[in-house]
Structures are given as C-alpha cells and as structure tokens.
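Justification of resources, computational component.

The compute hours requested in this renewal are based largely on the per-chain cost of generating structure records like the one below. Each record pairs the submitted sequence with a full structure-token output. That output is archived, and it is also reused by downstream analysis tasks.
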Amino acid sequence: MTILMNKVLELKMLYENISKQVVPVKLAYKFTKLFTPILAEAEFYSKEMNKILDECGEKDANGNLKVNAEGTSIRIKEDCAETLSKKLKELESIEVELKDITFTIEELNELKLSVGEFNLLMPFIADEE
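The structure output for this chain reads:
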C-alpha cells in the first residue's frame, strides 16, 4: 500500500494513542508490524524538516534558530518563504510504501477510537463480504 508522508504523520499521532492501550497479543503484533515502518518514516520526516528549517530559519549571533515572541514557531528568512513552502510540499508528498496489513472490525473492537482515528485506519480494514 502506498500513502503520502503527510498521512504517515497522522498515523504516527494515532500510534501514540493506540500504543497506550492494552490489547490482545495478536492485535498488538499486527499494530507493531504496521507502525514500525511508519515511525521510521516519521523520523525521516523530522530529520528532513530540521534540515529545511536550518536552511530557511533566521539565526541569532550564536547560530541558533530564532523563534517568535510566543516561542511557538521559528522565524523564517524573508527571502526563503517560497523555498520553504516548496520544500515542505515536496517532503509531505513523498510516497511511502507499507506492507499490506489489514484488520477486521472485530479486532478493532478492542480499541477506543474517535471517528477521526477510525477514519485513519479505514485503508487497513479488510472488507467483510
């Protein structure tokens, strides 16, 4: 199955919720098989994002990235906004290949999921015939 990097990031957040839940061993195993490559891809994204921010972010005299007054975001060089946008779109649109792992609705009954979280798992749910 092929998904885009931006979906990998959403699935990583879902993993953080699911990983705290106690589930049967077989379900935990399947989630581990699914999420191990997702977490690796999210780590790749993080490293590449840091490279982009290092290139496009404003730096102080010590070479540290400057943040806004609230401390919530990095200040971007004026001449780098377009480059930043282009590189982020490129990074988020990378195609990621995942193994075909599927779950049944019955297996997922063990989880407490929001509708949004369930929606993220829809591509991994086997159609019941």
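Strands lie at 2-4, 95-97. Residues 24 and 104 are 14 Å apart (CA to CA).
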